[in-house]
Design goal:
alpha/beta; two-stranded parallel sheet; 9 strands; globular
C-alpha cells in the first residue's frame, strides 16, 4: 500500500460511498469504523471489483485510546495517506437538560476530538510531500444554533469553522482542506440520532451517493466549502440574512418530531 485514502465511518452511508469513489479511481484504502464485519465485507468487494489494497481498522473513535491505535496501525502500514476523509459522526435529538451527559460527550469526542486528532496526525506527512487532500464532513446544521440538537449543531459549527480556517492556512502548500455541508441525507444517521421523524427529515433528503459524489469532486478541486443541493444552498443564504431569533425558532421547529 502506497498512495492511500483513510476514510472514517466507512461501514455505511457517506463513508461507504466515499470508499467506492476512491476505489473506482484506483486509490488504496484504509477503512475505519466500529463494525468490523461490515468493513470486511466492503473491503472484500472493493479488492475484487477494483483491484485496490484495502486495510480495515475496527475502532470506536469516541475512545481516545482507540483513536491513537488507529494512528499507530496506519503509520505501521507506511502508506502515503494522500486523502483523509473525516466522515465519522453522530447526532442526537432532544432537550439538552434532560439528555444523558455521556451521549453528548460522545458526540463531542467523535465529531470534534477524533477529527482534530486524525487531521493533526496525517497533515504533516501531506505537507512534507506537498500533496494531499483533507475532507471533513460538516453540516448545514453548523450554520445556525439548533435547539433540541444543541450539541450536535455546535460540533458541526466547529467542523465548518475549523476546516475553512485550515484551508486558508494551507494555501500554496499543495495540500487542501474541504468542508462538506450536507443537509438531511438518507443514511443510518437519522435512525441512530432519533431524528428520522423530525420535520427536517420529513421535508426531504438527498441520497448519500449524491452528497458523496459532490463532496468528492469538491475535495479534488480543493474547494474550501461546499453546500450540497439547491435547497440547502438557499438555507445557507437565508441563515446569513435572517434575524437570529427567527433562525433559532425555525431550527427548533424542524428538530421536533413531525405530528
Amino acid at each position: 500500500m502506497s498512495r492511500a485514502a483513510l476514510v472514517t465511518g466507512a461501514s455505511s452511508g457517506l463513508g461507504e460511498e466515499f470508499a467506492r469513489l476512491f476505489a473506482a479511481d484506483g486509490i488504496d484504502l484504509v477503512l475505519v469504523a466500529r463494525r468490523r464485519e461490515r468493513l470486511e465485507t466492503l473491503a472484500s468487494e472493493l479488492r475484487t471489483a477494483r483491484k485496490v489494497a484495502v486495510h480495515v481498522v475496527s475502532a470506536d473513535l469516541a475512545v481516545p485510546e482507540q483513536v491513537e491505535r488507529v494512528i499507530r496501525e496506519v503509520q505501521a502500514l507506511q502508506p502515503e495517506i494522500e486523502f483523509l476523509v473525516n466522515n465519522a459522526g453522530l447526532g442526537n435529538v432532544g432537550a439538552f437538560a434532560g439528555s444523558e451527559l455521556q451521549t453528548q460527550l460522545v458526540m463531542v469526542d467523535v465529531n470534534v476530538r477524533a477529527l482534530v486528532r486524525l487531521t493533526h496526525a496525517f497533515l504533516p506527512g501531506m505537507l512534507a510531500r506537498k500533496k494531499g487532500r483533507v475532507l471533513n464532513i460538516g453540516s448545514t446544521a453548523g450554520l445556525q444554533p439548533g435547539p433540541f440538537g444543541a450539541v450536535y449543531y455546535a460540533t458541526k459549527a466547529f467542523v465548518n469553522s475549523f476546516t475553512e480556517a485550515l484551508s486558508h492556512e494551507l494555501k500554496g502548500t499543495g495540500v487542501t482542506a474541504t468542508v462538506s455541508l450536507p443537509g438531511a441525507t438518507a443514511t443510518e444517521f437519522a435512525s441512530v440520532a432519533g431524528s428520522g421523524s423530525t420535520r427536517l427529515f420529513r421535508s426531504g433528503v438527498m441520497s448519500s451517493s449524491e452528497v458523496a459524489r459532490d463532496a468528492y469532486r469538491a475535495m479534488n478541486r480543493g474547494t474550501p466549502f461546499v453546500v450540497h443541493g439547491f435547497m440547502n444552498r438557499m438555507l445557507a443564504f437565508s441563515v446569513r440574512l435572517g434575524p437570529r431569533s427567527v433562525i433559532r425558532s425555525i431550527a427548533a421547529g424542524m428538530n421536533k418530531p413531525a405530528g
